[in-house]
Each structure stands twice: as C-alpha cells, then as structure tokens.
Amino acid sequence: MQAGQRTVGPETVRMLELGHPWIIADGYTKRWPAGEAGQVVELMDEQGRFLATALLDPQDRIVARVLSRERMHLDRGWLRQRLEAAVALRTNHADLGDTDAYRLVNAEGDGLPGLTVDRYGAYLMVQLYCSGWRPHLKLVTRTLQEMLQPAGIYEKSRPQNTRELEAAGDNKRYGRLLAGTAAPHHVEVRENGLTFLVSLEQGLNTGLFLDQRRNRRDLVGRVHGKRVLNLFAYTGAFSVAAAAAGASRVTGVDASPGYTEWARANFGVNRINPQRHEFVVGDCRQVLVDLLRQQKRYDIILMDPPSFSTTAKGRFTTRGGTADLVAAAVPLLPAGGLLIASSNHQKTDVADYLKELRRGALQAGSGLQVISLAGQPEDFPYPVTFPEGRYLKYALCVKGDT
Question: What is the pTM of this model?
C-alpha cells in the first residue's frame, strides 16, 4: 500500500513528541480522507512537518499506531529486523531456563504495536489487537516461518466482547492454524521446570498466562509446608507451582468446572497427586464467606481475578471489587500471613491499585505491609514513553495486627 499523509492536531503532536505510539480519534482525525485498515500513512503536523509512519485502523478508537519515527515501508526486510530485535531481547535479557512458553513479540514494547506473538513449545501463537495488521498477517506468518521454523503457527481471534466471554468461560474454537502442522488438543509446555497443558484452538486464552511466570517462580520459594488458598485459580498454574514446591495443602477456587478439571490435569502431568489438595468450584466471594464461617485458616492467600467477571452472584470489577475481596480474605490469614494480590487491568495504575488494597485492609480492620510489588517479566517489555504497557500489578502483603 502506498503511504498517504494524515495531519494531526497539536495535542497529538505533543503526545508523539513525548514518544507515545497511539493516535486517538479526535476532531482532526475525523477530517482525514477515507482509508483502509492496514494502510501505512505518514503523520504530519499542520505545518507539513513529518512526525512518524503509522499503521491505520480508521474504525478503532486508536485510529493509527506508530510503526517508526522515520519514513519506512512495512515490508519483509523491515518486519524481519523488528522480529530479530525482539528475539535478541529475549535471548540476552529474559531468564528462560527450562521454559519454552513465553512472549516473543510484545506489541508496542517491541515496536510492533497491536501485534503479539507467543511461543508455546514448538508452536507460535499470533494475536492481532489492531485490525491494521489483518492485511499483513500473511507477511507476518511467512517471516516467522523463515526465521524460526515452528511446527505450526496459530492465530487466536479477539472478539469485541472478550471480557464478557472470558467471564462466561467461553470455550469455542477461537484459534486457527495459519501455517505448519496442527497441534494436539492439549500441547505440553514447560515453565520454570514444570509442565502445563495449553490449548491453541479452544477458548479465548490458551490456559497459561505467560506474564505471571516470574511471579510463579517467586511463589515457589515461599510455600514449603504452608497452607495455600488460590482464588480465581483458572487452570491451576499457581496451584501447581505451590504444590510442586512443597505446600502442605493447596486449595484452588474457580467458578468454572471446566477450568477446574483442567487444573486437575495440570497436577497430573506433573505427577502431583490431586487427592492431596483441594479443588473448589464456586464464586470466590461466596467461598470466602463460607470459609470464614467454617473458621478455615491459610498461611498464604493468592488472588488473581480477571479484570471483569460475571457469576450467578453478581459482577466483579477491579475498581471497587478488589477492596471487598481483600476485606473478605484477610480474616482467613494469621498475623504474619501473606496476601498476594494481582491484577492485569491496564486502566488501573499502581497507585490506584494500592488504594484498593488499602481500602480492603481498612474494611477488615487489619494492617497490610507491602513487601514486594512486581510486574510482568522481561519478555513483556514496554517503552518508557508508554505507561499503558506497565499493566501487571503483583503485590505481596504481610498481614499485621492493626
């Protein structure tokens, strides 16, 4: 596609000069000539000065994403250079010992905004968060094949109502094979020396959240001989890590029977007897009430809820809902017990998230000391000019007396 030119207003100029990669729809972009998703355009200020080359996505709120601060063509040579830089970053800076499931391309963090590529063993998974990449998907696929020779390359589509579908445990086939040979129904991958089952075709997600790898490794050193409660356990990755590291008993809670069975299977492939641990299907908020009534106690409670979920009992959202969860969980801990609270909600920054934890502690009438605040691992880089890229919050808090 030939690059056209698009004029942006003073506010967008200022954001571009600060290094932000997004052009948000405004009065100026509404006057742009008609364009197609995937068109490569040159962004200019009102004086005609070149600012950046961007990928057009005219129907989205983010109408264009910056590919380069220089004039360029989105061709095989340019794309290969970006992909090689992404691979080199993981090779040189990511701790991937005994791990073959990780993020290979992290969108804006690797100069390919709106595009992610994950490795799952011998397979690659491409996801498009921007319609502008759709016309270039064959180019992306061919270049990945040439560079990495995977057994197969899949794409998982991102429907508009992803959050609601995730909350409902939607298990339709969202993955499709783009190149290579088809994967088995469940692919075995390695993370920190443990084995996990992932699905490249079924469901909106694969069954393993790669951005928590380093945090799961941290958990391993804290759980020996401890009673662990894992809320919103999903397919049990944190539960497996805790059980393998010698936790005396791991209780995993999730609203989905299907994910709970998947968690049992993850225990099985690691030769951990699921009978020695506990799997509870239920709404985590109601389960917390029941556990308190039963006077249960845990040494470590981990909560990693989706940013949005719906069950028969109601809705959960990160803003507001986190405080109530913390207030319900803290009474189950002894003084000195560990509360691990995590959120991947991009629109809630670290300061606001800590306010939620504070509100929950005050509701429970208990002190919480933050001893560590982590984020995503090295394979999820983000530009310092793109604060939205720092989305994962993982807070380790020790319960105090007051």
Answer: 0.92
